[in-house]
Design brief:
single chain, about 300 residues, D-Maltodextrin-Binding Protein, domain 2, 2 domains, 5-stranded mixed sheet, 3-stranded antiparallel sheet, about 40% helix, globular
């Protein structure tokens, strides 16, 4: 793809804005790369079929499809945090133990990031995942579903939940963003089309470097979130977005991302989400292709 435009898939929000910010800052241009940011609803399908070459999103969404054959690899980590398990403030539930025999709402459905994150929360707390049910609930209806007792908890993005937390309606009892045992894990990764990486290793590395430069800038300049609003990448309150960004580490290194992937692979094999006779190391070798190496730690 030398001399051609590289397409970056983007589905909105500050969490996945790193590549777009790299474009705004001119970092891709400095690397001699031309990009086109396009809207893509189902990111893994778009990158797997090479409609786009680069996407950013949850490990919890991307890992299983990649293991199962979608043509993409993870080139680097993006950031930590951004989703939590919420219950009604007056529910009397203060821990995952209180959800045994109950139902957790998952806005993006069974088998996607919300469900998979929920399973990891329960497992980490030694709650039998078979003792808790999961139910798809539209984001727009999830608070009502909790208030009507159709579900007793829900996995939500912290940005979406913030308004209801401030109103005193809900509280988090487990979190990727705020709990010590999860807040240092990589939440999201930059995934590249596999053929693009194999056929264009130099361009792929340059693109990764541009993205990482932008994210390290974000980590050191979170008060500059107005740029996200100016480009219509986020909505709602400016101060809220800054608070959400403060809860995420955009300076995450690839060593941390690799450790996270090992932990998640082990968990998913335990849950039966990933059914493979391959070892964790063999699976990691298939999905993880850090392109920067030691250079990752030098970017700031």
């Amino acid at each position: 793809m030398y001399g051609k435009s590289i397409k970056v898939g983007f589905n909105g929000g500050f969490c996945t804005a790193g590549p777009s910010m790299a474009g705004i800052f001119g970092y891709f241009e400095e690397e001699g790369i031309d990009i086109e940011v396009i809207s893509a609803a189902k990111l893994e399908d778009a990158v797997g079929t090479n409609q786009v070459q680069i996407i950013t999103g949850h490990i919890a969404s991307f890992l299983v499809p990649t293991v199962n054959g979608v043509n993409m690899v993870f080139a680097s980590g993006a950031h930590t945090g951004c989703k939590s398990l919420y219950v009604l403030t007056d529910s009397g539930i203060d821990s995952t133990e209180g959800l045994a025999g109950k139902t957790i709402g998952v806005p993006n459905g069974i088998g996607d990031s919300d469900h998979n994150i929920g399973l990891r929360f329960l497992n980490r707390d030694n709650i039998d995942v078979d003792d808790v049910k999961f139910r798809p609930v539209e984001s727009s209806a999830v608070i009502l579903a909790m208030e009507s007792d159709e579900v007793q908890g829900a996995i939500l993005s912290d940005q979406f939940a913030a308004k209801f937390v401030e109103e005193g309606k809900i509280k988090h009892i487990r979190s990727l963003s705020y709990d010590e045992d999860f807040q240092t894990e990589a939440c999201c990764v930059h995934a590249f089309n596999g053929d693009f990486v194999r056929e264009n290793p130099i361009s792929a590395k340059k693109a990764t470097r541009a993205i990482k430069r932008a994210e390290r800038w974000i980590e050191n300049n979170k008060e500059e979130a107005q740029m996200l609003f100016d480009n219509d990448w986020v909505s709602r309150d400016f101060d809220l977005v800054v608070r959400m960004m403060e809860a995420c580490n955009f300076g995450i290194d690839d060593e941390t991302t690799e450790t996270t992937l090992v932990n998640v692979l082990d968990d998913y094999k335990k849950f039966g989400i990933i059914q493979s006779e391959e070892t964790t190391d063999e699976l990691l070798d298939r999905v993880w292709n850090p392109l920067l190496g030691e250079e990752d730690k030098e970017i700031n």
